[in-house]
Write a structure and sequence with these properties.
Strand content: over 45%
Number of strands: 32
Radius of gyration: 30 Å
Structural class: mainly beta
Helix content: under 10%
Shape: globular
Number of helices: 4
Largest sheet: 26 strands, antiparallel, barrel
Length: 754
């Protein structure tokens, strides 16, 4: 009897859930896929004979609207959905083959691909990929429109949000979501024995809306702020072509690529809901505007190669060069035509380029039977090429254009990194290996407070396998980064007009506090250690343990981040009771701690940070310092059980639990007169249970039943009880803490033939 066929599921989502609960998952992270909504398996590349077909069709039900559970999987709406998946391949065409798949056909996360090819020759692939990301379904706003946002006709304005008597009646809900639709075409072929050619063409549309903060102001202390629904309507076209050569000694691949990005919106305009400022700025005539991401394109190339001089000497190279450019016309100085603009734009567009180049090479040596060595060099360079021009500005569309002294300049931020290094390893008894790695990194920046940083890194690693069922790897590294003198005024002088600089007292010529150091440019000592153990006490058991520790000490920073630490411990166990029953459990603990120091001071006459005389100006007084200590902890627990109950019944059970807590403790100097209080903690918990069963009805026909329970709750003090008008000078969406309890059920039939 054949084993039960299952379209593979992505069940191991614990790590993604941990990061999501901590709030650090990037928007384009790996989607979480519930049971019965399957992603395709890798298509087979080796030539074979025959054909096969697997088709799944059914229905599912989601109990409630949500956005955490359905953030990436298309199950954000309550109600019924279609389960539809298809995999097909045919190698019976006498030298020709077909392969294809479709998944999630009933959802906004559907995708599909079809490939035709000849054995050892030409293959052509066409496909599509749709993705939906839902960030929130609780937003409320009084604005209507797309790229031009307007208030209702009966809007009642005021100086603060509490004065808007028609706000609650004007609010309407919206979903913050981004949808991507991508189509692509691929082709590859052999050109004789040693040569191959491939090419890729894709077109993608990204639409939906996200959020953006905006304000109308003359200075930062009197801003009228709003949170706006920002439309997204992007088009991206990409093309690349590659030619490769390979023989017994030389492997070489060259690629050319081109990409083009088009934004269908140039500017986001909104009607000012406040009654502040002059008649041409306040409601109803006043408007504000934000420039959108500009159209741009990039063309580049890459060369990858390896040459085998002898069995003991190899050289690897990887280099790339790309030019990104944009020349989209500038917007006017102000979107508000009522404001006075006396100085025109210095140029119609940026007309700038950014050159990015990389070069990596590695020489691999085996000079002695037990000794291996690698000599490497890594290079990265970013070079800006744009005319330096002086621009006047409208201060947040809150007033007329200031005088000619208020001129700011576009600033180039060139960047170059060079990393040479060497790694040697030596094989020792007990199937062990000792390795040592040294690398030197030099980073050069332009128009930055620190022009140059240098770092030495030393890494010692030891791997041992004293028994066939036990392996261990220990690693420790130390890095020391030293920086040039912190020129706190460097970015100030690069940004502003000479006339304005000369009119400013020397001691006030800074943007950030002179002692506030940016952590990625500051002096730093770093220690890292890790330990990995894997033990198989018997044929039925597999035990694993991972321990990590990282400590960063910014020993020269007086203000800013001064220290951070990270501890991690994860343990796992798998038990294979029989051919029909297996189980695994895991648990993890992560702890992250930061220490930072800052100083409380006001601007104006007390801005002189360097003249020390009684009484000390606040900016120069260390007694005005306050400190912040942040602690983030995360606990994860999970288990998986797979049971072949009978020859015709397979059951799978998964459970994941995540508990995270973030705390921020504040302190102050006793003599400062400050009253620093600790912030409330932010707590997040997740329970996720998945149960799936597959029952063979007939030889080729199976029934799959799925159930999922999802419980997600977050308690963030910054969102608790906040309504759109809670903050007097800030209009928000009024979003609360996520609190979701979701039940998902699915039933489908699977037909498998081969």
């Amino acid at each position: 009897m054949k084993s039960i066929h299952r379209i593979p599921c992505h069940l191991g989502a614990a790590s993604s859930l941990v990061l999501a609960a901590c709030g650090v998952v990037a928007q384009e992270s790996t989607p979480y896929t519930p049971l019965a909504l399957e992603n395709r398996p890798p298509l087979k590349s080796a030539w074979q004979s025959g054909a096969s077909l697997t088709a799944q069709l059914g229905a599912a039900y989601t109990s409630d609207d949500n956005y955490m559970f359905g953030e990436y999987n298309g199950l954000n709406d309550d109600g019924a959905t279609i389960i539809g998946n298809l995999q097909w391949q045919d190698f019976s065409g006498g030298g020709n083959f077909w392969q294809g798949y479709m998944s999630n056909v009933g959802l906004d996360t559907r995708e599909g691909e079809l490939t035709w090819g000849k054995a050892g020759g030409l293959s052509i692939t066409a496909g599509f990929d749709s993705q939906l990301q839902v960030s929130s379904d609780e937003g409320r706003t009084p604005f209507s429109g797309s790229s031009r946002l307007s208030l209702p006709d009966d809007w009642v304005s005021g100086l603060t949000t509490s004065d808007w008597t028609q706000l609650n009646q004007s609010l309407h809900g919206f979903d913050q979501e981004l949808k991507r639709e991508k189509i692509y075409l691929k082709a590859e072929t052999k050109l004789g024995r040693n040569w191959a050619l491939d090419s890729n063409l894709s077109y993608e549309e990204k639409s939906g809306n996200t959020d953006v903060g905006a304000g109308i102001y003359i200075d930062g202390s009197s801003a009228d702020a709003v949170l706006l629904r920002q439309p997204v309507d992007y088009e991206t076209t990409e093309f690349d072509i590659g030619l490769s050569y390979s023989d017994s000694k030389l492997s070489l691949e060259g690629r050319l690529n081109y990409s083009e990005f088009d934004n269908q919106h140039d500017v986001l305009v909104w009607q000012n809901p406040y009654s502040s400022y002059g008649p041409n700025v306040r409601y109803p005539e006043g408007i504000g505007g934000l420039g959108e991401a500009p159209d741009n394109d990039q063309i580049g190339g890459r060369l990858i190669g390896q040459y085998v001089f002898t069995p003991k000497i190899r050289l690897q190279v990887d280099g790339s060069y790309a030019v990104a450019s944009q020349d989209q016309n500038f917007l006017d100085y102000s979107v508000n035509p009522a404001l006075a603009v006396t100085v025109p734009l210095p140029t119609n567009n940026y007309d700038g380029e950014v050159d990015n180049s990389t070069f990596n090479t590695r020489l691999l040596l085996n000079p002695l039977p037990k000794l291996n060595a690698e000599i490497y060099y890594k290079y990265r360079n970013r070079d800006y090429d744009a005319k330096r021009s002086g621009y006047q500005y409208i201060r947040g569309d809150g007033g007329n254009q200031p005088g000619s002294a208020a001129t700011v300049y576009n600033t180039n931020h060139d960047y170059r990194s060079e990393v040479p290094g060497i790694e040697v390893s030596y094989r020792l008894p007990l199937r062990s290996k000792l390795s040592f790695d040294y690398e030197y990194e030099k980073v050069t920046r332009e128009n930055a407070p620190v022009e140059e940083t240098e770092q030495d890194r030393y890494t010692l690693a030891y791997r041992i396998q004293p028994w066939s069922n036990f392996t261990a790897r220990l690693e420790a590294s130390y890095a020391d980064r030293s920086a040039d003198t912190y020129e706190w005024a460097q970015d100030y002088y690069a940004l502003l007009d000479t006339e304005l600089i000369n009119a400013t007292p020397d001691a006030e010529r800074y943007i950030n506090h002179p002692e506030l150091m940016k952590y990625y440019m500051a002096n730093r000592e770093q220690w890292q250690t890790s330990a990995d153990f894997n033990f198989l006490p018997g044929d039925q058991w597999n035990l694993g343990l991972n321990l990590q520790w990282i400590d960063n000490d910014y020993d020269a920073s007086q203000l800013g981040l001064t220290e951070d630490e990270w501890y991690r411990g994860h343990i796992s166990a798998s038990y294979f009771a029989s051919d029909t029953l297996s189980a695994s459990v895991y648990a993890g603990y992560d702890y992250y701690k930061t220490d930072q120091s800052s100083r409380a001071f006001r601007g104006g006459s007390e801005k002189n940070a360097f003249v020390i005389y009684p009484p000390l100006p606040q900016a120069s007084d260390p007694n005005q310092n306050w400190s912040g200590e942040g602690e983030d902890t995360s606990i994860t627990v999970g288990t998986n059980v797979q049971w072949q109950a009978t020859k015709d019944l397979e059951i799978t059970f998964d459970y994941n639990y995540v508990d995270t807590q973030a705390e921020q403790d504040l302190g102050d100097s006793a003599s400062s007169g400050l009253d620093a209080g600790d912030l409330p903690s932010v707590d997040t918990r997740l329970h996720n249970v998945k149960l799936s069963g597959i029952w063979r009805l007939q030889e080729h026909l199976l029934l799959q039943l799925d159930y999922q329970y999802y419980r997600y709750k977050s308690d963030d003090w910054a969102l608790k009880g906040v309504q759109p008008n809670t903050i007097g000078k800030v209009l928000t969406f009024g979003q609360g803490n996520p609190n979701e309890t979701i039940n998902y059920v699915g039933a489908s039939v699977i037909y498998h033939w081969e």
